[in-house]
Every structure is written in C-alpha cells, then in structure tokens.
Write a structure and sequence with these properties.
Layout: H1 5-8, H2 12-22, H3 43-47, H4 49-53, H5 71-83, E1 87-91, H6 94-106, E2 112-116, H7 121-130, E3 133-137, E4 141-142, E5 147-148, H8 153-162, E6 166-172, E7 179-181, H9 183-192, E8 196-201, E9 224-227, H10 229-232, E10 240-244, H11 251-261, H12 268-303, E11 310-311, H13 314-317, E12 323-326, E13 330-334, H14 342-351, E14 358-359, E15 363-367, H15 377-389, H16 418-422, E16 426-430, E17 443-445, E18 450-453, H17 461-472, E19 477-478, E20 487-491
Parallel strand pairs: 2-3, 2-6, 6-8, 8-9
Antiparallel strand pairs: 1-10, 4-5, 7-12, 9-10, 11-13, 13-15, 14-15, 16-20, 17-18, 17-19
Helix pairs in contact: 2-5, 2-12, 5-12, 6-7, 6-11, 8-9, 12-15
C-alpha cells in the first residue's frame, strides 16, 4: 500500500524552521544581518528574504545539535532508520569533518590502522588529530585505464598477518570514478581480527536504493560510514552524514567526538537541506536512482564509439584490481588515443557552457544524478558529443601517453609520524632540491585530493618528477603553502653543531 505523500516527506527539522519563520519573530540575537535586513546587495536579493530569515541561531524550538532532543534528534533518527545505522549525525563540515570524527571515534593515540595509499587527504588529517599510526597499502593499478583500483581482501589479510595489532581498516568505496571495493569481504577480515571497518563513502550516499548500483557500505558490514549527501543527492554543498553501528563502536563516544568537532553555530539551512534530502530519498529513492542510471546510460551510450575515445563500463573493471562493481552514474572518458588532454577537453566543454566534475591529463569525469533526468538532458548529451566530435587530431591508434598519466603514483617512504611532523618546524626548499628531505606538508592535486606525499614521508626523485609533470599539465595543487610548487615545506634539519 502506498504511503501518503505527507507522511513520506515528513521533514522534522525543515518543518520546525518553517514554523519559526511563519511566527515572524523579530531577531534580537545572532546572526548580525538580522534576517537579511543588514545583508549587502546583491547577495541579499540573490538569496531572497525567506532563505535569509531562516539563517537563524540556536533557538530552543530549533533544538541543539550538541544535545539534540527535538527536531534535530528526529532528523538524525530518520536518517539512521533510512540507511540502517544505529546512529546518524548531521555533519556540517562536509565529509572531511565526518571522516575526522570517524577516525577519532574508532581509534586511540598510537593505534595502527590500515590505509590505502590513495585515500583522500582528509584521512591524513584525521590521523594527525588522533595520533594514529597508518599502515599503508597500495591498491592495484589498472594501467590501460590509468586508474587506481581498490584495496583487495588479500591485501587486507596480508596486512593483518604482518600487523596483528591493527585496530581498523579504512576504505574509500566507491572511489571518485565509481569503482566499488569488496567491502563485505574486507569487513569480515577486519572483524575476524577484532578490528573495525571505516568507509569513506563520500561518493556513495545514493547506494543501496537500487539493484543497478553497488550495495552500500552499511549493507556490507561497515562499522562506520561517512557520506557526502551533497555530492549526489539533494543537500546543499558542505552537507554530509556520519553513520555508526553500535556493535563495535561506542555510540556515546561517537556523539562526543562529533560535538567536539562541530561548530556551536551550525547553519540551519545546511542542516535543513540534509533533512530534506533524506526525506526525498525515503519517499522515492528507487525512482530517483532509476532516473539517474537512465540519464547516465544515455550519456555513456552517446559517447561510446567516438574515434580515439574510450568510455569506462562496468565490464572493464569489475573483478579486477579489487573492484567488484561500478557506479554507473559516474561516466569516465579516457583520452589515451587522442592528442587532446583531459584538461584541454574540460576547457573546451566549459567554453560550450558545460562544467565537468574532474579532469586530469588522460581523463574527463561526468557526474550524473537524478536531477539530470529532465527535459534538457538529451540536448545536453548532444552538446557534449558535439564538442567531442569537433576536436581535432582524433587518432585511431594509441597516441603517446604523457609520462604523468601512464605510471601509478610513485610510493615513498614514511620516516616520521604524521603528528610529529605536523607540530615540527619546517622550512621551504625548491622542489628540485627536495629529494631526500622529509616532507612537512600534504601535497595533492585536486580533484580527487589524493595525497602524492604526506608529512613525514621522504621526497624522492620519482615523486618530484611526478609532481612537476602534473603541475605542468595544468592540474590545480592542493595542500602545500606554495601552490605553484616552486617550493615545498620540509622538516628543518639540525644545523652543524646544533643540539
């Protein structure tokens, strides 16, 4: 029997905000713009009166994210019930904040944790906060696609063989390109050794709602999962959820950690959008995902067969390099048989009024959601194809692949703990002269935000060459103080005679 729409779309936090707005209360409290009255133009007009009036502070009737007992508690409980967790937390500092909280909840200072080397830079930040010890593993590489795969169950088992005192495993599943790990098998391995599985599921808040998508991390036995509700669902940018299972994780401690890391002035528009996105998914999750898959398949099919261009399909990666399935809403183009780089193609698409999710020397990634299932989507697909067909120098045979794109990310040596270097004294040196020095900052290229070198790791000539090639290709640098990469910060070494 179909539920009534009013019941399906119950949004306790949004409804409380709406009631407060309708009461017309004069704000003798923060924020200082007083419901938009003092907001500068043109932003005031762009946002509108209603949105600015709902930019409110911690009113009693709007609950307290640090000790929720009303509408926020109801919104979090509804999210937990929808996803099958024992507790869900609204995360208004993005999935970065949720990942920090996940690591600080599950680990204690000095604990060892298995971390794939292609994890997002936020994992390194969480390790610094908790002072945990990473044990790195390099996921298999797919050279013909120029992409990293996933940590395999065998790698996880071998890591526990070498480090039986591991307390946790971190996975990123699905990864930026939609490739899902064997979460269930790795969860079983971790649990058999008394460890927990923590999943960076930033790109998977929509999983588990349609059989054409990989299962969710929680469905596969994860103990905690951090999701970017804003990336593929209807929440506003910066909005995420942290899910916790209580069998192996202390739910009270998780709440304490979230409170520690969350602002005491959370934005209600952000939190309300999380509540609204959850309600939307609860009401029509399967339908939303059906529309997303249909839109993505239409784009993928329209681009398949263009000379010199390869489109990533599930059959290309499933069962290889630790990958069990592909989230088809991520449409990846590989340009290995063209004279055009992903950066150049991204620029041409932008000139045509089309902005893409990710570019690198050999790839362009389109992110497709249920919101792309509108009447304009066929024309958008046609415009994308038109840009590709107009590109010069398509080649039928494989072109020379730039050195920056062909090899896997070079591995480096971890010399000192992350936290020790983070609080150490650093100095800038030219990148060309950094070989042998201990890195004092995170160097990554964004997106996808995977660190090339982390604090405490040693610069090597291959790492330096890899960084220079990526920078020369036009990829934006994220993390270092000098984003030109002319210099990098390294740990200051004792001078002769210094003690």
């Amino acid at each position: 029997m179909k539920k009534e729409p009013e019941k399906e779309l119950h949004q306790p936090l949004v409804e409380a905000m709406e009631r407060y707005l309708q009461e017309g209360v004069y704000p003798l409290h923060t924020p200082g713009h007083k419901g938009g009255r003092g907001m500068a133009e043109p932003l005031r007009s762009l946002l509108g009166d209603a949105a600015l009036k709902m930019d409110v502070s911690l009113m009693a009737e709007l609950d307290d994210i640090h000790a929720p007992s009303g509408c926020i508690a109801a919104a979090q409980q509804a999210a937990a019930e929808l996803y099958g967790s024992d507790a869900a937390f609204l995360a208004v500092n993005g999935t970065t904040g949720a990942i920090h909280a996940m690591l600080m909840t599950a680990l204690r200072p000095g604990d060892k944790v298995l971390v794939p080397r292609n994890s997002h830079r936020s994992v390194a930040g969480g390790l610094i906060l908790v002072d945990a010890v990473p044990v790195y593993a390099a996921p298999p590489y797919l050279p013909e696609w120029g992409l990293q795969g996933q940590l395999t169950p065998d790698q996880a088992a071998q890591a526990f063989g070498r480090h039986p005192d591991l307390k946790a495993v971190v996975l990123t599943s699905p990864n930026y390109f939609g490739m899902a790990a064997d979460v269930r098998a790795i969860a079983d391995i971790a649990h058999a050794h008394g460890a927990v599985l923590l999943v960076d599921e930033a790109h998977g808040p929509h999983l588990g709602f349609h059989g054409g998508l990989p299962p969710s991390a929680l469905q596969c036995g994860a103990d905690m999962a951090a999701q970017s509700t804003h990336k593929l669902l209807g929440a506003m940018t910066q909005c995420s959820l942290l899910h916790v299972r209580g069998e192996r994780i202390d739910l009270r401690h998780a709440a304490d950690v979230m409170s520690l890391l969350t602002t005491t002035s959370p934005n209600y528009l952000l939190m309300g959008s999380l509540d609204a996105a959850r309600a939307q998914l609860a009401a029509d999750g399967r339908g939303m995902m059906s529309r997303a898959l249909a839109a993505a398949d239409r784009l993928r099919e329209s681009l398949t067969g263009l000379a010199g261009l390869r489109v990533l399909w599930e059959a290309d990666v499933a069962g290889r390099a630790g990958v069990t399935a592909l989230d088809r809403t991520k449409v990846t183009l590989h340009l290995d048989r063209t004279d055009v780089t992903g950066i150049e193609l991204g620029g041409r698409l932008r000139e045509a009024g089309l902005a893409v999710e990710l570019v690198d020397p050999r790839h362009v990634l389109f992110l497709v959601t249920y919101a792309d299932a509108g009447a304009e989507w066929p024309a958008v697909c046609g415009r994308i194809r038109g840009v590709l067909e107009a590109l010069p120098a398509w080649q039928g045979a494989a072109a020379a692949v730039p050195a920056a794109a062909a090899p896997a990310l070079p591995l480096t040596e971890a010399v000192l703990p992350l936290r020790q270097v983070f609080y150490g004294t650093t100095e800038p040196v030219p990148l060309d002269r950094a070989a042998g020095r201990i890195c004092g900052e995170t160097v990554s290229f964004y997106p996808p935000g995977i660190p090339v070198v982390l604090p405490g790791e040693r610069f090597t000539e291959p790492i330096i060459a890899w960084c220079k090639a990526r920078k020369a290709a036009g990829l934006p640098v994220s993390g270092p103080a000098d984003t030109t990469l002319a210099t990098v910060r390294v740990l200051r070494e004792p001078r002769d005679g210094a003690r």
